[in-house]
# Entry
Amino acid sequence: MNSIYNYSREKLDLYFLDKSQTKFRSTQVFEALYKQKTTDFSEITNFKLELRELLKEDFYIPKFKIMKMQESLDETKKFLFELEDGNLIETVLMKNSYGYSICITTQAGCNMGCAFCASGLTKKKRNLTTSEMVQQVLEVDNIINKEGKRVSHIVLMGIGEPFDNYDNVLEFLRIVNDQKGLEIGSRHITISTCGIVPKIYEFAEFPLQVNLAISLHFSNNEKRSKYMKINKKYPLDELFKAVDFYFEKTNRRLTFEYILLNDVNDSLEDAKELVKLIKGRNAYVNLIPYNNTNIFTNSILLTRSTEEKMKAFYDYLKKNKINVTLRKEQGHDIDAACGQLRLKEIQWKV
Ligand code: SF4
# Structure
């Protein structure tokens, strides 16, 4: 049996047409699932009994088990969910001035092996289904709905590389953006990639105006290849060719994420190289303070830049007319770094 959350409205249309029903049935199912938050097909009262029975035969409505929830002083909430097959995933909710954004996981583990990332320490076990991504949003939204709040923004920046799970992620985007679904505006959704070049070309053709962020973190090939395996396959010149194609095709501004690591990529030389790379492009740079993880990489303990260095880096970019922000830290009193909570739980179980 299939989870109903795997189905976009377009896919459900096909299902109902095949059952000699009108497409309007899928709109009704969507409203029941995502507006009324139905958890039982019997509650879809505008469906005749036979239709409800048909849905029950072909689909089910799954629910996650919440294994753990941590709440930070700044209201950041971190959830550890258990999937049906026992895999554990993390989801983070952050309070911002513009609303509540949720950072979702797209894979159980990750094979990209970025050296600064706790998630990269555990290999990918499998891709998440569309349903498992939708459920993360629904579960958290349901929890905060009780406090009169709602999830207004989604970032696909949790564990996993979204473009390594491309088809399921695109179906997820269609569902959460659907007006009859969760109705999260496409400009309120950001997908982040470490740089899978062929998928950047493909994504430029995707009709929804979803924001794209590139996890750049290094501005020369030598360093980027040392800390990010993906750069060996798709070095910076190939990445920026794809990025320029994306600009041309979509006319959308792109974000470059840059984690500041002490004595690794935070010098003024690094800032200069970054300016050279970005200048003249419709982009902005998001500087991110590193969450220390006690993880050794190439026998080096990666640590966070000092406040002075972060400020100097930021100022240099600003002075050179690069749009730049220094991300406000959230949830620093809980296991805030991507993958930390899951990693701890796995270690406890071993
Ligand atoms: S930073 Fe993202 S792509 Fe890289 S290992 Fe971590 S989860 Fe995977």
Remarks:
- Residues 130-145 form the longest helix (16 residues).
- The chain is about 35% helix and 20% strand.
- The radius of gyration is 21 Å.
- The pocket of iron/sulfur cluster is lined by residues 110, 112-114, 117, 119-120, 159-161, 194, 215 (CB under 6 Å).
